[in-house]
C-alpha cells in the first residue's frame, strides 16, 4: 500500500470524515487515534504528509512534531482548536508546514493537503534532489544519479538505500531500518549486507570513500546522510 497521508486525530468522527474525503481525492490514507500509535505508524509507513491534531490524550501534537522533525522534513499540517496567535506561531516554530483551526470544512483540508504537497514537490525541483551545490544530483523520475559531471550507475538496492538516507537527512538509520525501508522485509537477508551496499555506494558517489561527506557512519548505530 502506498501511504500518502497519516491522519492523527482522537475524535473518531472527525477522523472518519477526513479519511473518507482524502481517500475520495485519491490519497492512500492510514490513521492513528493517539500519539504512540502515530509515532509507530509514521516510522512503519513513512507517509508523504501528516495531518496532526494538537490535542491528543497521551502525547501532544507539539511533542510529536518535535520528535519527527529530529529526523525528517515530511510536511505536517496541524489541526488545532486554539486560535491564539501565540499558539499558531509556536506550531510554525516547531516546523509545521500549515495549520487548520477547528471547526473546518473537509474540502478545505483536501485543498490544504494538495497545496502543501505541491509545495513540497516544487521544493524538490520537479523530483530532482540536489546536494552540496549540485555536486550530487538524484533524479527521482529517471532514477539517475550524478556526482559532479559523472553519471553514476547504481543497482536498484543501492539507489533505494541512498534515497532512504537523503530523504531523512537528520535521521540515523540502523542497518535493520535500512534493510526494511530500502530492500523490503526479507528475513533471509542478513542486515550486515547493508555494509557491503554502503561500501559500494561510497566508492561510486564519494570523492574520497575513506573520508565520506555524504554517507556517514554513526559508530555503534548505523548510518546517516551528510549532504546539504
TrEMBL record:
May play the central regulatory role in sporulation. It may be an element of the effector pathway responsible for the activation of sporulation genes in response to nutritional stress. Spo0A may act in concert with spo0H (a sigma factor) to control the expression of some genes that are critical to the sporulation process. Residues 126-227 bind DNA. InterPro entries: CheY-like_superfamily, OmpR/PhoB-type_DNA-bd, Sig_transdc_resp-reg_receiver, WalR-like, WH-like_DNA-bd_sf. Residues 126-227 form the OmpR/PhoB-type domain. It comes from the Bacteria. One of its GO terms (molecular function) is transcription cis-regulatory region binding. The lineage of its organism: Bacteria, Bacillati, Bacillota, Clostridia, Eubacteriales. Signal peptide: none annotated. The keyword DNA-binding applies. The keyword Transcription regulation applies. One of its GO terms (cellular component) is cytosol. Keywords: DNA-binding, Phosphoprotein, Transcription, Transcription regulation, Two-component regulatory system. GO terms for biological process: regulation of DNA-templated transcription. The modification 4-aspartylphosphate is found at residue 53. It comes from Clostridium sulfidigenes. This is Stage 0 sporulation protein A homolog. Residues 4-117 form the Response regulatory domain. Pfam families: Response_reg, Trans_reg_C. PROSITE patterns: OMPR_PHOB, RESPONSE_REGULATORY.
